[in-house]
From TrEMBL, chains A, B:
InterPro entries: ADH-like_N (IPR013154), ADH_Zn_CS (IPR002328), Glu_dehyd_C (IPR031640), GroES-like_sf (IPR011032), NAD(P)-bd_dom_sf (IPR036291). Residues 145-356 form the Glucose dehydrogenase C-terminal domain. This is Enoyl reductase (ER) domain-containing protein. Pfam families: ADH_N, Glu_dehyd_C. Residues 26-141 form the Alcohol dehydrogenase-like N-terminal domain. Its cofactor is Zn(2+). GO terms for molecular function: oxidoreductase activity; zinc ion binding. The keyword Transmembrane helix does not apply. The keyword Nucleus does not apply. Keywords: Metal-binding, Oxidoreductase, Zinc.
Length: 358, 358
């Protein structure tokens, strides 16, 4: 079978390779890949910034946002059958630490977890892959065309679920939400927040007429062009948001936004920011603002099976309420043989590339 | 009756004044003040940095950490009688916002709450004060001598309770705690944490033989002299703590400590820091560390009745387990007429001044 693999930590070594089709044990499931989508982590791996090959191998098959169709199930498998559509989870239990034992590998306390397509485990950019049933989430047929978005949606879902869990620290009644960055994570966050009855704002630096802004509006959010309205002006005009999700990949925006969290509010840092530039801040101002306002800032990474399952639910609702919204996030739909185009530089209108395997 | 009052926002105007003894309505309780203790907020008010007089008046009676004895109860009062020992809460409901209506005035969303002895309501540094029963928490006789510590302990209790509530976001099993600053809030935090079975470290910049270090050890914590062991070295030696409580009043320490929170860990900012100096940080480093480690930083201020009630419980346990520990926090015990000494500059061995009214 064909697969896309590279040498991690080396720039642009991605190539098409030919491998034997995986053989399953009686406890495994064989899946035919339908499509995989690309995110910032894939791009970082592509340019050699990140990633690690499985032990004893010299290449890593990339791809961690995938949807596939079950082809064959091992004889001990119950609950899955050929023809089922599935989405695989990404981070895998270390099998050892207390949180992994509690089925929360997204919170693994060890540094040696595996993430398929990212760290020490092959990904899904191959014609077939196999997996254990606990790592596969079934999706209904009507979500297959947007199935590879379930993974990033699960990451956004973890952020939102964590916000609501954390805020159970008191009797919270949020009214407004601000999503910073209208890339795929930001837009999927806005789609999720639409279920919570909040006045939601999506903030980016593209025009009102852009695809990003249009999708944000489809989700029910008000789009704000940050080139016209700085964050402090936004807060003056619309009030300080009760919750903020930071998904720009720009840590300076993250720090600016800490100044406009509402009293008792919460901000989730959801994006990795590249670089290590220095910035001058007033630590007393930030400290006192967080203390006197009972405010929370937290980081969130990865997701577990429960977030995937919730994401499937949200995606179904979204498809009913705003048909086509999710599909529009996939701005670049590519055939397998055109995979290199997914890694080329993109302009501001690009959101996400998807590679189809059939 | 005698009282200590000042003109807020003016330096060193504190003076002894003579007032009429309060008269109670049928819904109020009259309390004879036994003792009040002094914290950083009182000192800030004393030097004119903070505080606001009640509407229509030109002076503020200070003091918000108090214990007293019920002298008289209004005819509609049930549950209190003359002779009861009580501690008053500080922040009072705005009566309007949703969190105050839910009995959490410590989270008041408006800027116009009242805090007795601090903002727009007289404090307890007078021979008598009156209050409504919902603002009074009964304490057992054996806690009277340390009763004025219940208020700061309630503030530390809110921090610890919030930490445990927030961490319900996943299956958390903390092992270690670090308290930064062995002032009264830090030491009371250590006393509270002792109940949770964690390996607790108290960190300050005084010697092993100091009263602060001795009290920290009495609480069950390991004392670390920060002059010998910087925070990064501490983390190398003892591991990154699962929870950190920042109570130094130094925001630079707060930012340094963000680097040593364990994976999935949490840090509570509990102290206001004076000044507005600038500092150079790497926002990407901090952002990525919080994101990839699923870490939380939050601020906590004030406390509500539930935290006072819990603090009474903790204080009882502490008195049984480590008799005399709480009393040692009150390093300067002063008669009412010597009140000025409570506001003089103190050396590093000082923790807290208490003023006795009889």
């Amino acid at each position: 079978m064909k697969a896309l693999a590279l040498k991690p930590k080396q720039a642009e070594t991605l190539d098409l390779i030919d491998l034997e089709k995986p053989r399953i044990s009686s406890d495994e499931i064989l899946i035919k890949t339908l499509s995989t989508s690309i995110d910032r982590t894939d791009l970082d791996i592509y340019v050699g910034l990140y990633g690690k090959e499985p032990e004893g191998e010299d290449r890593l098959i990339i791809g961690h946002e995938a949807v596939g169709k079950v082809i064959e199930v091992g004889k001990n498998i119950i609950g899955f059958k050929a023809g089922d559509f599935v989405v695989p989870t990404v981070r895998r239990t270390c099998g050892d630490c207390d949180v992994c034992v509690a089925d929360e590998p997204d919170m693994c306390r060890r540094d040696d977890y595996k993430e398929r397509g990212i760290v020490k485990a092959h990904g899904f950019m191959s014609e077939y892959f196999k997996d254990a049933p606990e790592n596969l989430v079934k999706i209904p047929k009507e979500l297959v065309s947007v199935g590879s978005l379930i993974e990033p949606m699960s990451v956004a879902q973890k952020a939102v679920s964590s916000i609501y869990k954390i805020q159970k620290r008191f009797s919270w009644r949020p009214e407004s939400a601000l999503v910073l960055g209208a890339g795929s994570l930001g837009l999927l966050s806005a789609v999720i927040l639409a279920r919570y009855g909040l006045q939601t704002f999506a903030y980016d630096i593209v025009s009102e007429n852009s695809v990003k802004a249009q999708i944000a509006k489809m989700s029910g959010a008000t789009y704000i062009d940050g080139r016209d309205l700085k964050l402090d002006e936004f807060a003056n005009n619309y009030g300080k948001p009760d919750l903020i999700i930071e998904a720009t990949g720009n840590s300076s925006v993250a720090f600016d936004a800490m100044d406009i969290i509402a009293t008792n509010g919460i901000m989730c840092l959801l994006s990795i920011s590249a670089g290590s530039h220095e910035e001058t801040i007033c630590p007393d101002c930030l400290n006192n603002d967080l203390v006197l306002g009972n405010k929370v800032v937290f980081g969130s990474v990865s997701s577990n099976r429960s977030h995937f399952e919730k994401a499937v639910e949200v995606a179904r609702e979204s498809e009913k309420k705003s048909p086509g919204l999710l599909s529009r996030i996939m701005t670049d739909k590519l055939k397998f043989e055109d995979f290199r185009r997914a890694f080329e530089a993109k302009d501001n209108s690009h959101i996400k590339s998807v590679i189809y395997f059939e």
